[in-house]
C-alpha cells in the first residue's frame, strides 16, 4: 500500500492578558479570521454571558471605541458586523449604550396575514419580495447591480408525481421520462412573518399547509452580504395521497432563466 501524506496549517491565537477599558462595556468579544482573505462586515452572532438590564440598549464597538453595525436578537444573542484581515483576530466590545446602527439592510411589509400580504427585503446586493398569495414564495429576486430579476415563485415546497413511463418502452431521454404532476406551495396562499428586523440581520418566515403537507421556510438576511441562509421544513401527513406520492421537494429553488442561460 502507498503512503499518503498531507499538510495542514494550524494557527493558534494567544489570549491577551488584559482587555482595554471601554466605557459601558459588558464583555469583550474576540473574533478570529482563519481565512487567507480579508472579511468585511462579516455577520457574527454570539451569546452574551453578562445580563442586559431590562430596557437598556446594547451596541458593539471595536478596539478604538468606534461603533460597528449591531443589534440585539430576540433570543438574547448579539449580532454584529466584523471586519478582519487574513489570519488575524480582533476584539470587539458589547457595551450598554444607545445603538444607532445604520446599514444597507432594509425590510418592508404590507397586509401580512390577509393571504395577499408581501414582504420585501433588500441590501446593496439584492432585493427579494415574498408573496402570501403565492404561498409565501419569492416572486422577486433582483440584482441591485444589473436589475435582472430571477424570482419565479422560488424556494417553496411541492409533492406529487415526478415521472410516468412505460416499462415495456424504456425512456431514452429526460423528456420521455419526466412528466411532473405536482401540488406546489405557490398554488395556494400562505402566511408570512417578519421575525427579526434590524440593521445587521432580518429574518422572514413563510408558512404553508394543505391536507397533505405542512411546509415552512426561514430566511436570514445580512447587511452588505451577497448571500442569504434558508432553512426549510416539510412534514407530510399520513394520507393516501402522500403514501403514493413519488416525490416530496422540501425546497424547490426554481429561478427565472433571465441571464442564467
Keywords:
mainly beta; globular; four-stranded antiparallel beta sheet; 261 residues; single chain; 47% strand
Put the structure in a nutshell.
With 261 residues, the protein is mostly beta strands.
Structure description:
The two termini are 47 Å apart. The mean pLDDT is 90. With 261 residues, this protein is mainly beta. Strand 15 and strand 16 form a beta hairpin. The strands form 5 sheets. Strands 1-7-3-4 form a 4-stranded antiparallel sheet, with no helix packed on it. It has a 4-stranded antiparallel sheet with strand order 8-9-10-11, with no helix packed on it. It is built from 2 helices and 18 strands.
Mean pLDDT: 90
**Number of strand segments:** 18
Q: Please, how many helices?
A: 2
Q: Unreliable stretches, pLDDT < 50, 5 or more residues?
A: none
Question: Strand order within the widest sheet?
Answer: 1-7-3-4
- Please identify the structural class as seen in this structure: mainly beta
Main sheet characteristics: 4 strands, antiparallel
Amino acid at each position: 500500500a502507498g503512503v499518503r501524506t498531507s499538510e495542514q496549517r494550524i494557527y493558534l491565537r494567544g489570549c491577551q492578558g488584559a482587555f482595554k477599558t471601554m466605557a459601558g462595556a459588558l464583555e469583550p468579544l474576540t473574533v478570529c479570521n482563519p481565512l487567507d482573505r480579508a472579511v468585511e462586515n462579516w455577520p457574527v452572532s454570539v451569546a452574551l454571558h453578562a445580563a442586559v438590564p431590562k430596557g437598556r440598549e446594547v451596541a458593539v464597538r471595536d478596539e478604538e471605541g468606534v461603533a460597528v453595525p449591531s443589534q440585539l436578537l430576540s433570543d438574547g444573542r448579539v449580532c454584529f458586523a466584523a471586519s478582519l484581515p487574513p489570519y488575524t483576530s480582533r476584539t470587539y466590545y458589547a457595551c450598554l449604550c444607545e445603538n444607532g446602527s445604520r446599514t444597507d439592510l432594509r425590510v418592508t411589509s404590507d397586509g401580512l396575514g390577509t393571504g395577499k400580504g408581501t414582504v420585501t427585503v433588500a441590501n446593496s446586493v439584492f432585493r427579494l419580495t415574498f408573496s402570501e398569495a403565492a404561498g409565501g414564495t419569492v416572486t422577486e429576486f433582483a440584482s441591485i447591480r444589473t436589475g435582472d430579476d430571477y424570482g419565479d415563485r422560488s424556494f417553496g415546497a411541492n409533492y406529487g408525481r415526478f415521472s410516468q413511463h412505460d416499462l415495456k418502452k424504456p425512456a431514452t431521454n429526460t423528456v420521455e421520462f419526466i412528466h411532473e404532476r405536482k401540488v406546489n406551495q405557490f398554488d395556494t396562499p400562505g402566511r408570512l412573518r417578519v421575525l427579526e428586523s434590524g440593521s445587521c440581520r432580518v429574518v422572514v418566515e413563510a408558512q404553508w399547509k394543505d391536507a397533505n403537507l405542512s411546509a415552512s421556510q426561514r430566511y436570514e438576511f445580512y447587511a452588505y452580504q451577497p448571500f442569504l441562509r434558508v432553512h426549510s421544513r416539510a412534514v407530510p401527513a399520513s394520507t393516501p395521497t402522500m403514501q403514493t406520492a413519488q416525490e416530496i421537494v422540501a425546497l424547490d429553488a426554481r429561478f427565472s432563466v433571465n441571464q442564467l442561460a
